[in-house]
Structures are given as C-alpha cells and as structure tokens.
Amino acid sequence: MKSKDITLLDGCNNVIVIQQQSEYFEQNQMKMIEIDKCQQQMSQGRKQELGDWEKFKKQKEQ
C-alpha cells in the first residue's frame, strides 16, 4: 500500500513533506521542534493564521 504524501507550508516558508508512516514521523520530531521555534519568532498576526491552520489540520485528521 502506497503512503500518501502531505505537503505543508509552515509560517517560515519551509515546505515539509510528511509521509503517513510512523517511522517517518519519529525521524522528523526534531524537524517539527525547529519549525515550532521558528513559528514562535513570527509576528502575532502570522501566529493567528497558523493557529487557524492547525485547527483546520486537526479537523481533517478526525
């Protein structure tokens, strides 16, 4: 079964391709932490936008 790739664009303009495979997620925990740090440095407006994106993402996962 082929895994489906999800491409995300984070607030720091980094393109992240996430393969829906647990192994890949584990390997990329550090990458996600780096992105979080970057997001913390963004303006409040961008953070709000990102929050909306996170909510949207969570809804899609359910």
Describe the protein's architecture and organization.
With 62 residues, the chain is an alpha+beta fold. It has one domain (5-61). Helices cover 58% and strands 16% of the residues. The protein has 3 helices and 2 strands; from the N terminus they run E-E-H-H-H. The chain has helices at residues 22-27, 29-40, 44-61; strands spanning 5-9, 15-19. A two-stranded antiparallel ribbon has the order 1-2. A hairpin with a 5-residue loop joins strand 1 and strand 2. The longest helix is centred in the C-terminal third of the chain and has 18 residues, at 44-61. The two termini are 21 Å apart. This is Chromosome undetermined scaffold_25, whole genome shotgun sequence.
Short description:
Helix content is 58%, strand content 16%. The chain has three helices and two strands; from the N terminus they run ββααα.
List keywords for this structure.
62 residues; 58% helix; alpha+beta; 3 helices; Chromosome undetermined scaffold_25, whole genome shotgun sequence
First-last Cα distance: 21 Å
Main β sheet profile: 2 strands, antiparallel
Structural class: alpha+beta
Tally of DSSP β-strands: 2
Share of β-strand residues = 15-25%
Neighbour order of strands in the largest sheet:
1-2
Helix content: 55-70%
Radius of gyration: 13 Å
What is the tally of helical segments?
3
Overall geometry? flat
How is the topology of this model organized?
Layout: E1 5-9, E2 15-19, H1 22-27, H2 29-40, H3 44-61
Antiparallel strand pairs: 1-2
